[in-house]
């Protein structure tokens, strides 16, 4: 058994990050890893993590070093870091000579607002972290979750001492390089699709094809742009929206104002979106923000469903225009409507794109491929005793 310490903020299955970490742990445990969890706080359904974690530990925020010292004394040497808000925890891991592998899920390590978008002008940000520039951006960006600039800088300096950084797309690899992360420590690893098996065509619903959105109802995910696009489609269709979030009331009002109440269905938040994916004909990914990867598109491919989305962030790495779906211009509801209409009108193209998407998953996103690549990363880190000096920022 290979001992591995998972380090993250919360044992929370109500959030997509928690579910992703849970599933990653499950896969590695099946493949001869002993999974120990170290969490900064408890979350919703924390007890369920014991289904896949051999041990669960929660730090004392006033003194995270005690838990780290105990785990190191018990033979754990490699820490698989996912998220953190506690510089003292990272300092303790480094002080105890844990070898860190960090999975870069999102922009949190180098963006204090987390979403890499300029306030006011509504454009995606490509500027590296800078205390001065990011202070202005954070000040103008609404949201209590903005991270204080000194803490942002401290966390980034600490996490740069990881032995390896796992990213899901070349787009995110470039984001790290731009922010001063060492190129030789960055490795791209596509995430596995878990908890689903491909099925056949969507169930017959007469002549009405179905578009599906799955995600948080927030501006970054663009559900409002999808409804704007739906307003422009003059074909029979049904739009099903799975998720919850701060825009829900506004979205419901838009649907009513646009006369779309017979076409748009709000399903709320669900733990398992696969049942909705397998009954849909087209999956829409209308994200405004620079998605690190957008896992929902890969889940759609696993069910043989085509995807329509905006060409932003890492989406264009797996959503190949006119091969497994269609790419619309960023933030362009008119172009999004045109792409959706193209697929609504052409069931044969939908089926071919779906088959091509499934082929992508079977080539790049299997559990076997993920584990084989992670084994190489783990073994390389585990046997290397070289001390990594602090990076300069």
Describe the structure.
The protein is α/β, with parallel strands linked by helices. It folds into two domains: 2-192 and 367-382, Rossmann fold; 210-364, 3-Layer(aba) Sandwich (Rossmann fold). Helices cover 37% and strands 17% of the residues. A seven-stranded parallel β-sheet has the order 3-2-1-4-5-6-7, sandwiched between helices. α3 (87-95) packs parallel to α5 (149-159). The longest helix is centred in the last third of the chain and has 18 residues, at 347-364. The mean pLDDT is 92.
Task: Summarize this entry quickly.
The protein is built from 14 helices and 13 strands. By secondary structure, the protein is of the alpha/beta class.
| Whole-angstrom Rg | 21 Å
Q: Tell me the β content.
A: 15-25%
Q: Give the structural class.
A: alpha/beta
Distance between the termini: 37 Å
What would the principal axes of the Cα set say about the shape? globular
Classify the helix fraction into a percent range: 25-40%
For the largest beta-sheet, the strand count, sense and barrel status come to:
7 strands, parallel
Number of helices: 14
Helix and strand pattern: EHEEHEHEHHEHEEHEHEHEHEHEHHH
For this structure, what is the CATH class of the largest domain?
Answer: Alpha Beta
The CATH homologous superfamily name of the largest domain equals: Glycogen Phosphorylase B
Q: The CATH topology of the largest domain, please?
A: Rossmann fold
* Regions with little confidence, pLDDT below 50 for 5+ residues: none
Mean pLDDT: 92
């Amino acid at each position: 058994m290979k001992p591995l310490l998972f380090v993250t903020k919360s044992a929370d299955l109500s959030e997509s990050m928690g579910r992703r970490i849970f599933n990653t742990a499950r896969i590695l445990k099946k493949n001869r890893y002993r999974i120990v969890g170290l969490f900064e706080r408890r979350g919703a359904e924390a007890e369920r993590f014991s289904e896949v974690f051999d041990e669960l530990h929660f730090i004392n925020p006033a003194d995270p070093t005690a838990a780290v010292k105990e785990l190191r004394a018990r033979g754990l040497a490699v820490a698989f870091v996912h998220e953190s808000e506690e510089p003292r925890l990272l300092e303790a891991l480094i002080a105890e000579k844990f070898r860190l592998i960090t999975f870069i899920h999102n922009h949190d390590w180098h963006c204090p607002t987390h979403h890499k978008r300029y306030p006011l002008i509504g454009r995606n940000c490509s500027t590296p972290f800078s205390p001065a520039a990011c202070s202005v951006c954070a000040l103008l960006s609404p949201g209590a979750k903005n991270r204080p600039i000194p803490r942002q800088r401290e966390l980034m300096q600490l996490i740069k001492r990881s032995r390896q950084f796992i990213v899901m797309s070349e787009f995110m690899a470039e984001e790290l390089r731009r922010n001063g992360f060492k190129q030789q420590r960055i490795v791209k690893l596509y995430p596995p699709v878990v908890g689903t098996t491909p099925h056949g065509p969507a169930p017959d619903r007469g002549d009405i094809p179905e578009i599906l959105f799955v995600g948080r109802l927030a501006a970054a995910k663009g559900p409002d742009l999808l409804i704007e696009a739906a307003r422009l489609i003059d074909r029979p269709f049904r739009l099903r929206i799975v998720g919850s979030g701060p825009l829900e009331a506004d979205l419901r009002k838009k649907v009513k104002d646009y006369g779309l109440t017979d076409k748009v269905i709000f399903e709320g938040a669900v733990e398992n979106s696969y049942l909705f994916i397998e009954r849909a004909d087209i999956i829409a990914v209308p994200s405004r923000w620079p998605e690190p990867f957008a896992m929902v598109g890969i889940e759609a491919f696993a069910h043989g469903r085509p995807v329509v989305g905006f060409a932003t962030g890492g989406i264009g790495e797996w959503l190949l225009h006119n091969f497994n779906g269609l790419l619309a211009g960023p933030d362009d509801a008119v172009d999004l409507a045109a792409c959706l209409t193209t697929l609504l009108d052409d069931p044969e193209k939908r089926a071919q794109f779906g088959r091509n998407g499934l082929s992508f998953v079977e080539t790049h996103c299997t559990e076997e491929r993920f584990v084989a690549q992670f084994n190489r990363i783990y073994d390389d880190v585990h046997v290397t005793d070289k001390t990594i000096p602090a990076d300069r920022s």
